[in-house]
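User: My instructor asked us to take a sequence, write out its structure as tokens, and then describe one feature of it. I'm not sure where to start. Here is the sequence I was given:
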Amino acid sequence: MRCWARPCFFGAASCSCGDDDDDDKADPNKPLPDDDTGDDDDSAADDDVDDDTGDDDTSDGVMPHFLGVWDVTGTDDELGAYEGQVEFWVNENGEFRFSRSVRYADQTFDGYDVYSGWDGTAETADNAAEATVTLRRVDYIRAFGDLVRGEDEKTPEVVTGTFAMGEGKTLTLTAGYTSAPAGLVSASETLTYAGENGDLPIFFMDDTYYPTHEPMPDWLHDLVFLIMTDYHALPFFDDYRDREEFDVGVHYYPHFRTGFRLVPRAPRDVARAEQNHRRHQSGGNAAALSGLRDAAA
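Assistant: Let's start with the prediction itself. The structure tokens for your sequence are:
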């Protein structure tokens, strides 16, 4: 099931003390024409206090006119046309966050639609914003069909999205995405304001691993690891045996809360096979939990 619920908006109430900038007073979530382009409450050259906490200054580091949910249409250089939603929101720690969920019109995998979900950070300045998302390219399947993952794919791909708003807090944005170090993502899109933030963001990573038992007592731990010394020496464990959690010897049960199981990962068939495997594990909606991706590979 698509998770389109949205998070709370942490907007401050308006308390005007003579400032005639009231473009955000009617609805601090909604982009409206800026009636005072000269408002400079936070300018170093302005010795006035911030007399209107609902205006368009940046005293809280967030431009109120970016907050909310935006409908998206765009084109990915590799995956083609897509549509969905983007959200700018503020979490409980006051951090400005970015979420994105889109469906690719011409992409399918094993008969299912292909979506992607991003969860990252954002910054704003004047009529522009920038989002940063780190995409994991590998997980637990080494190969699928003729595709084999390489060592270079262990390096995460960092996507940067740039957003521009027209003068006067318009109801549309234009955006472009690029990525590094491999340059796997290239896309452009148009965003149209859709509404306020809700109780939860449109997408966020919310997977939990529960321990299935308490850690072993020292004597049992030492005995088990002694018995399994030769087994733990196998090449399979090269990437794991030096980890602290490996030495603890606790088994975990994964609980995938994330709605569609959208994860920061490349869209190639290896990643999509992983999604299908998780879909069957979690019993989620087949169409929504299909092979999902976050970056072009």
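For the description part of your assignment, you could build on this observation: Confidence is low (pLDDT under 50) at residues 1-29, 32-60, 259-267, 281-297. Try explaining in your own words what that tells you about the chain.
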